[in-house]
User: Fold M15 family metallopeptidase from Candidatus Ruania gallistercoris.
Amino acid sequence: MSITSSSGPAHPADVPHPPAAIHTRPTAVRAACAAALVAATLAACGGPGTSFPGSGSGAGQDPDGDGEITTADGLLEEPVSVDSILPAVTSLDADLLAAVHQAADDAGAEGIEVLITSGWRSVEYQEQLLAEAVAEYGSTEEAARWVASSTESRHVSGAAVDVGPTDAAYWMSRYGSRYGLCQTYANEIWHYELVTEPGGECPAPATDAAT
Assistant:
């Protein structure tokens, strides 16, 4: 069912959440194990996962062990304003960011604060998220419902943004099309892309990123 209609989702309790791993501070050991697991699983399955939502909240080792994932990779320790000067925001596609700015201004006039929980991500950061999702869910098939490979992620290309908190996500789901912003996955009410012209009709979201 499309949730970009004027009726909106039924209740905040219905909102799914990103994998728990994305909200924790991973240790180097965990990240290394997760990376090994995803590499082995991908080799067995012969292909990558697909797309992801959500914000990151703690720095950790990148999958190759070359260094920590930091704000330079698009990591956000906490939700930030659309005016943030962090790379997660400033490296977004310019048209997407402009649309989010306008939406946030209008939502703010209604008493709803729109924050960015995740935006642009480096290849290394996306690979870490994929490794963590596979470690949490136990398979690339389930992880693919939430996390894209670094070559497929719309976050890596700067073409996707995740918003919060819940009331902001619901507001965006209902009114985002005014700005050309559409919720592209039904299980990710926080994830928006510039899909249509301002005032256009958003297509029905895919069931999830693996669809």
